[in-house]
């Protein structure tokens, strides 16, 4: 099957959707399908099998900044790519995000599977015409119950629950960054909803010998660096490559995900679990999609610095607890392998093709 996977977000910017798109393309190719990714790229594409659609424009959305490309040049490139590639099926991630996914919905050049990722509410769904656009998707999927509920409330229709996948082999073969002292890893955009400020405040309650690796950047970076510049235990790593991200996650003693809200699915938790790194995270519905029982990670009340510090310290000071979390977490990650997700989507692709064929008759 020849599959076109379309991301509205720039593949050269860090993000959960981008990781899913690229990982799914690799898994589909490994299972014998022809998969090509169409997406904006601010620079060279991150891997082979990608058709770049131009540069992105940072746009505020869902308490964050999305690197999307709603411009006319991107539209023309998308039209040309869809015409030249002649895909058997299209897979649109965040179908109603302005940009190439919109163009694909208008053209509808092949059967369409759409995956909704976002949760927490969106004013975009109330824009006139969005329900009509959504109706052009043959099979609708959502990565969590929250994402499905948001889409259903705004757009109507039915949504099949899927999951976000993790490429286990990449973590098995990755080198671990050296950590000479107990080390916490944080990966996420530096913005209020991600809760980095809560983690930094919690650091003041942790012993001197504990170190924190802070990856990525965001609108709060400079302010937070100034506020905590005297704490030499904090290493501001900035934006890191995918290989370095894996190394830091794997080398850390614990990964902390202190988000306050707006998380649809805990991909970063899965990545740490795949790396056999214990997880301390906020007790959010989105993170409960991964830590469903609670034994897979330590979950604390969002925004509670004292509880967060206590939970981190309990993992760092108890090797037996850390080992238990790592083992159970890895077992949980294996249930979310990208290969399993690819098989799930192939079934949807085949059903979308059959649906379009039956509608044509």
Spell out the key features of this protein.
361 residues; alpha/beta; Rossmann fold; 2 domains; 6-stranded parallel β-sheet; 14 helices
How do the helices and strands line up, and which of them pair or pack?
Layout: E1 2-6, H1 16-30, E2 34-39, E3 50-52, E4 57-61, E5 64-68, H2 72-85, E6 89-93, H3 100-107, E7 112-116, H4 130-134, E8 139-142, H5 145-155, E9 160-161, H6 168-173, E10 183-187, H7 196-203, E11 211-215, H8 221-227, E12 234-238, H9 242-251, E13 254-257, H10 267-274, E14 279-282, H11 285-288, E15 298-300, H12 305-317, H13 319-334, H14 338-360
Parallel strand pairs: 1-2, 1-6, 2-3, 6-7, 7-8, 8-9, 10-11, 10-13, 11-12, 13-14, 14-15
Antiparallel strand pairs: 4-5
Outline:
The protein has 14 helices and 15 strands. The chain has 361 residues and is of the alpha/beta class. β8, α5 and β9 (160-161) form a beta-alpha-beta unit.
Question: Can you walk through the features of this model?
Answer:
The protein is α/β, with parallel strands linked by helices. It folds into two domains: 2-165 and 337-354, Glycogen Phosphorylase B (Rossmann fold); 168-334, Rossmann fold, CATH 3.40.50. The protein is 41% helix and 18% strand. The chain is built from 14 helices and 15 strands. The strands form three sheets. Strands 3-2-1-6-7-8-9 form a seven-stranded parallel beta sheet, sandwiched between helices. Strands 12-11-10-13-14-15 form a six-stranded parallel beta sheet, with helices on both faces. The chain has a two-stranded antiparallel sheet with strand order 4-5. The radius of gyration is 20 Å and the shape is globular. The model has no long low-confidence stretch (mean pLDDT 93).
